[in-house]
Amino acid sequence: MNPSRPRGEEVPEPGAAGADETDAESVLQALRQAGDDPSQSEATRELLRQAGDALAATLHAAETARLRYRTLFDAVPDPVSIIAEDGTVLDLNKAGMDAYRRRREEIVGQNISVLNPDLPRDHMIPVWEALNRGDTYVIEVTNMRGDGSRFPVEVHSANIHFDERKSLVAVARDISGRREAEMRYRELMETIDKGIVVQNRDQKIVYCNGAALRMFGIGENQRADEELALERWRIVDEDGNELTPEELPSHRALASGHVIESVLLGLYHRRNKHLIWLTMTSVPQFAPGESVPTQVISLFSDVTELKRDSALFDRAQSLAHIGGWEWDISRDRMYLTEESLRILGAARPLETLDAMLSCLREADRRRLRMAVQQVAAGSGGFDLELQGCRADGHVFWIRVIGEAEPADPGSLRITGTMQDISLDKQAEEMLRIQARTDPLTGLMNRDAVLTELGALLEDPEQARAAVLYIDLDRFKMINDVLGHNAGDELLVQASDRIRGAVGTDGMIARFGGDEFLVICDAGDDRDRPEALANAVLHAFADSFRFGKDEFAITASIGIARAPIDGQRPQQLIQNADIAMYDSKHRARNGWQMFTPELARRQQDRMQIETQLRRAVDNEEFRLVYQPQVDLRHGRVVAAEALIRWQNHQLGELRPDLFISHAETTGDIVRIGSWVLREACRQVAEWRDQGLGIVRVAVNVSYRQFVGEDLAEKVRSLLIEFDLPGSALELEFTERVLIEDAPATLRTFADLRAMGVVLTIDDFGEGYSALNYLRRLPIHGLKLSQLFTEGVPNNRSDVAVCQAVSAIARSLGLGLVAEGVESEAQRQFLLQLGVPVGQGFLFAPGLSPDEFARRLDTPLERASIA
């Protein structure tokens, strides 16, 4: 296409060289043959030759024009297409083939929809309407490449006659980069922390970014133009003078066409009575070809806090206790402000560097002198925290900042500030102490004692430290019965008693929960750890009081020595813990030295716990049944199911050995479920053997009681084995008495409604909450073997048995005595009115078959001792 041609002028079609050029070549060849024909006259041949030359010249000119058109057409860097009036693509340049990633023949001859399949059917109508008016048509569309990918283009269209056809030329400019730039610009506008407001020539708001909306408190459902209407705001300058609309930076920028920079404005919201301060810059913007701004962009920052701080600056300086100082190096002259002199506690002016340094401790004198010397040598400034002592003896901390300042030629001055940071240092020390202190007891905490013990063990001269690991006995019972507040009070009282017992002979720490550590030097006095342990036990001899309640709380103590029992803090503490654990499980209220044998037992406990987890799955448990006997006639009235454990590695283990482990690990819940099911199965088997319904008592762990829906489990087992509720007796510890919760009462009521017999086991051993006892729907109590073993000779045990028997009678509850082993015990219990007992006087735990044989025969008293 010849760019010099006027719009609408015909241009040769670059693709028309086919038929027309072939015909012209044929004519030219015929003319030349005729011009060489000797039969023609010389004049005719000359005319023919001239005609041939003229035709050749014309063909050459046409080819030259075609090549020029193609060269210019393909030289355009943007895609250019010639499109017929019906939308057919007549030609496409090289840039178009590259942009659309298609060959020319895939596009030429096709409808324009091949480049943009999203165009509506009548898309050419508005194009030709604009072109027929003599306008250029511009539109943004999305074109498609050969691989189906899309890209945005801006298309400029104009009239053209092509091959004697009314056509248009369309130039498509790829605007992907512009779109990405616009997107990044919008993202920047929204993420920048400066407020941005765009106003048109009439100062109507056309855009607010997110930061501006936040600064002005404009919500999602509010319109910015309404909320920022001038009548809603009173706008003042930095001196508080109200500004007119014409004085605002945006108006001035539009009026002058110049940038109005960094204007401080106060905007007071008339309705909310809220004032914000902004620093604003307004920039006018011009449209292409315009001489006056078409819009203005205002950028601003919220400086409300800075403005407030500036107003308070003078007062803040006087309150901050910051003084100034200057040292003239050439004359060794020191100048200190009055505040600096006050900070240093100087009674007179300090006129030299040495005079100022004399207020500091020796080490800090050297630090400050070296710092100013380095500044004098050109090494930059310094920022130091220094300690000193005032004339009145008070210690102080100061922060000194200094830097070189150019002065007269040949002179150098160092200037800076001095701030009293004594209170900050005291606060830091307080925080350091708090970080090492248990907030409840005021003792060292776990981290602090580990650090101190580590330091002791690293020092060869103090490496023979000893650790006392102290654990309070029955602390959990106080927490459960009286609540956590009483538990905290107990810990405070206990820590005070340990402090009094240890004195200055050791470091004391609360290690966690109800556990305490005492660290002492066992080098000079080998007996000191044992003496301290005895002193602590003696301190716990008196009962603890909580209001009207009184509790005997004792302590179990384990002792480990370095280096024989451990050379690292954790190892030494762990071994002391092992010793404490042994003391607690043997007798409580005592102490135990660590031995390798205790470590071996600890390993055994771990092995027991490991095997215990698999015992149910490996079918290692079995039940034996101890008869419950009518004390007067010797008739079996019921049985208690007792668990036994035969492990393939550990052999037969006593219940008192593994039950406590199961309680600790939580395995007791799964074991308890197995016991309950096996007992029901056995009762059903005896019934099927014609022995009737034998009531079997099963112990229910507290963990089992709170950890599952016990009533629902019992109901399903009774249904599964077709048993009445009276076939089952559930024995609970006294701990359930304190669970005065609706769920507890509901569970007991549901069980009783099924006919299940409910009993409190080992009554009297724990905290006997009689108030709760009368509220629970239970049937009976079991008198602990702990008390029956002392009757009839031990007066205390006799008194307890009499009391429990009286409680049972007054509440209408049944009573069963455990641990009956002698005829004298049986006679005493009969006289006391206890109807039923169990124990070795009658029988130990029996296998199911052996128990079945005893059912029809009254047990001979003392037949099994």
Automatic annotation (TrEMBL):
Residue limits of the PAS domain? 65-118, 181-222
Biased-composition ranges for Basic and acidic residues? 1-10
Q: Which residues form the EAL domain?
A: 605-859
GGDEF domain residues: 463-596
This one is known as PAS domain S-box-containing protein/diguanylate cyclase (GGDEF) domain-containing protein
Q: Which CDD domains match?
A: EAL, GGDEF, PAS
SUPFAM superfamilies referenced in this protein's UniProt entry, alphabetically: EAL domain-like, Nucleotide cyclase, PYP-like sensor domain (PAS domain)
Residue intervals of the PAC domain: 137-187, 382-433
Alphabetical list of Pfam families matching this protein? EAL (PF00563), GGDEF (PF00990), PAS_8 (PF13188), PAS_9 (PF13426)
Matches recorded under InterPro entries? Biofilm_reg_signaling, EAL_dom, EAL_sf, GGDEF_dom, Nucleotide_cyclase, PAC, PAS, PAS-assoc_C
Highest taxon, organism lineage: Bacteria
Gene source species: Pseudoxanthomonas wuyuanensis
Query: Which stretches of sequence are listed as region Disordered?
Result: 1-26
